[in-house]
Amino acid sequence: RLAESGRVMSVLREEKEGAERSLHGKLEDANLRIVELTKSLEDAKQDLSREIESRLDLVHQVEEGTLSMKRMRQENDRWRASSKDWESRACDAESKLESALSTSETNISEAAQRTLDAESRVSELQGHLQDQRLVMETLQAEIKRLQSRADSSENKVTEVRHAASIRTQAA
């Protein structure tokens, strides 16, 4: 019985070590995935920061364009008052300014969409990161459960050895 108990203990230890190696491997994989997702999240944050800066630059350009357009309209009004010859030139300038304003508004709209896309990507990466954290917590709980089970098995083997020792001494 003592030899059989020793064999049982050996088998249980091998199972425990195999399960621990497997779980540690999965835990390392989860940690690597978390590092990758964290880097992706940081990259996405940097992309978002660049997009925000780009958008602010576009807003500044639109403001400058608006001021320029106001100045041109004022100049246009002076030209119309002073001469009919300048009217066609003023119309051309106003058309160009409105075209530039339209282009700027299109750029702002595109920058806003890129910003929304980047925010969506950040949110998605945060979701993946949370999933990986849950996997890691599950693996850690499984390791604790297996360690507890192995400790319980070792205690039973020790009890069986002790009982066998008592019987041997009694015999």
Please characterize this protein's 3D structure.
The chain starts with a helix and ends with a helix. The chain is mostly helical and about 170 residues long. It is about 100% helix and about 0% strand.
Mean pLDDT across residues: 86
What spatial form do the alpha-carbon principal axes imply? Answer: rod-shaped
Helicity range = over 70%
Number of helices: 2
Helix/strand-derived class?
mainly alpha
Largest sheet: none
Counted beta strands: 0
Order of helices and strands: HH
Span between termini: 15 Å
Mind telling me the C-alpha Rg? 37 Å
Instruction: Show unreliable segments.
Output: none
Share in β-strands: under 5%
Name its key features.
98% helix; rod-shaped; mainly alpha; 171 residues; 2 helices
What topology does this entry show?
Layout: H1 2-82, H2 85-170
Quick structural summary:
The chain has 171 residues and is mainly α.
